[in-house]
Amino acid sequence: MFTWIGQFLSSSIGKKTTMALTGLLLVGFLIAHLAGNLLLYKDPEAFEAYARKLHDLGPFLYVLELGLLALFVGHIAFAVRTIVENRKARHSKYAVQADRGGKTLASATMPLTGTIVLLFLFWHLIDFRFDGGFKGLFADGASGAGAADVVWNTLGGTAHMAVYLLGIAALTLHLSHAIQSAFQTLGLRHPKWTPLIERGGVALAVLLGLGFASIPFAAAIR
Amino acid sequence: MSANEHDETIDLTLKVWRQRSGGAPGQFETHEMKGVSVHSSFLEMMDVLNATLVRAGKEPVVFDHDCREGICGSCSMVINGQAHGAEPETATCQLHMRKFRSGETVFVEPWRADSFPVIRDLMVDRSAFDRVMSAGGYVSANTGSPPDANATPISREDSDQAMDAAACIGCGACVAACPNSSAMLFVGAKVSHLARLPQGQPERERRVVAMVQAMDSEGFGNCTNHYECSKACPKGIGVDVIAQLNRDYIKATVVRSN
Ligand code: HEM
Ligand code: FES
């Protein structure tokens, strides 16, 4: 009954479709994540109220987190599979290789930028999810006051600045290829829309990058 | 890039890939080519090299060729790192030596992809494409005789797009140029060509599924949308055929109930 799913997921196009869908959903998450973070600039209470609301979701927050984890695992699992298969598809390398302008810095470094994003993610989760300063702030109906200060204090140092900027730069480069690439993978190509999608994808990648990068900068100059 | 107007000949240093068989190790062999006519094609220059080699009692360089007019797709050579050389939309047989500078060093390699094993020197086995085609790259329903084709109404846009896809000569430059050795441009062209014509509709879904299955089992890589394929294609086939292939495959496997 479900064999078609296995067949689809083991086909080259099925693998790429899964990467494109999980990738686009992750972009959706990033937009929401950044929107929440930007509340830091409004006032500390706005950010704390937002964080409070997330925590009030209770078990439902775990469901959301599991969903997010599934997106990452799915995206990365198929990324690893396709990278390995693509390496295997050409054992003997060209002595001379001259690209014709299709390949870009972003498209050629997808495995690298993806890996940097993943490593950054571990660091980021340790900062704010596992044993970060938020611990206790939201326990047992605590108000969450001081959450904004935790962000500023955590991100203030040079080590954090360097790691965050590297991670965010890799993410920006990854997305500058990824967003339009996902549309092509899903078969959504159109003479009128594709030029907009290509430019819009890069614009969204840069906006997300600038938005996220602004936070460690703001922390540094406080 | 072109030779001096007054010079009718150029001198080149040719580095040609020599490999006795698929399993054997290969290496470059250097040949100084003196007085190459700028009016000759790349293959004619290779013919001159081979004539010289034969006269010297050596093995000629094995390379694939047939029509020498850019329609059969057999002249597979990677020239200075580019499939069919640097000229846009030009097969190796149509590439003229006036496009090279005197004194230049020119590297000539075979298509490199595990799905296209080297037979000898520059000649590779492209039968993987034949197997993909026999999986579904045809119409088996009776579509009538040639006059009947004119009786089937088809929009100008559809016929133009089908013709663009049908321009594929199956040379394999897309695979050779793809950093992932993916065959998506070739398979996309073949699927789109028939998907855009009324005659292709009855078998459209079965075709795309079977051809993608055959493509995957031949060990071609996964497309990551670099688009080097389209830039290398001697017929200038666009990556819209890859989008069509993706769309048709997703529809046929995920959306359709059967
Ligand atoms: C927030 C994190 C991430 C987002 C939003 C994201 C998004 C995307 C999108 C939309 C694509 C395009 C898929 C397509 O072309 O069809 C993609 C491709 C890819 N991603 Fe990610 N990705 C993320 C993290 C990662 C991570 C952690 C890796 C890990 C190793 C990774 C590796 C790749 C690779 C190798 C590709 C394939 C390149 C290609 O197909 O062009 N990504 N990503
Ligand atoms: S020899 Fe036929 S296309 Fe070049």
Order the strands across the largest sheet of chain B as they lie in space. Answer: 2-1-5-3-4
Largest sheet of chain A: none
Residue windows where pLDDT falls under 50 for at least 5 positions of chain B? none
CA-atom Rg of chain B in angstroms: 20 Å
User: What global shape of chain B is seen?
Assistant: elongated
Structural class of chain B: alpha+beta
Helix content of chain A: over 70%
Assign the CATH architecture of chain A.
Up-down Bundle
Question: Which residues of chain A form runs of ≥5 with pLDDT under 50?
Answer: none
Number of helices of chain A: 9
Please name the CATH architecture of the largest domain in chain B: Orthogonal Bundle
Question: How many helices of chain B in DSSP terms?
Answer: 9
Helix-strand pattern of chain B: EEHEEEEEHHHHHHHH
* CATH class annotation of chain A: Mainly Alpha
Plain-language structure description:
- The complex is a heterodimer of chains A (222) and B (258).
- In chain A, 77% of the residues lie in helices and 0% in strands.
- Chain A is mainly α.
- Chain A has one domain: 3 helical TM bundles of succinate and fumarate reductases (Up-down Bundle), CATH 1.20.1300.
- In chain A, helix 2 crosses helix 3, helix 2 packs across helix 8 and helix 6 crosses helix 8.
- The mean pLDDT of chain A is 93.
- Chain B is an alpha+beta fold and 258 residues long.
- Chain B contains nine helices and seven strands; from the N terminus they run ββαβββββαααααααα.
- Chain B has a five-stranded mixed β-sheet. A two-stranded antiparallel sheet of chain B has the order 6-7.
- In chain B, helix 4 packs antiparallel against helix 6 and helix 7 packs across helix 9.
- The longest helix of chain B is centred in the C-terminal third of the chain and has 16 residues.
- Chain B is elongated and about 65 Å long.
- Chains A and B meet through helix 1, helix 2, helix 4 and helix 8 of A and helix 7, helix 8 and helix 9 of B.
- The structure holds protoporphyrin IX containing FE and FE2/S2 (inorganic) cluster.
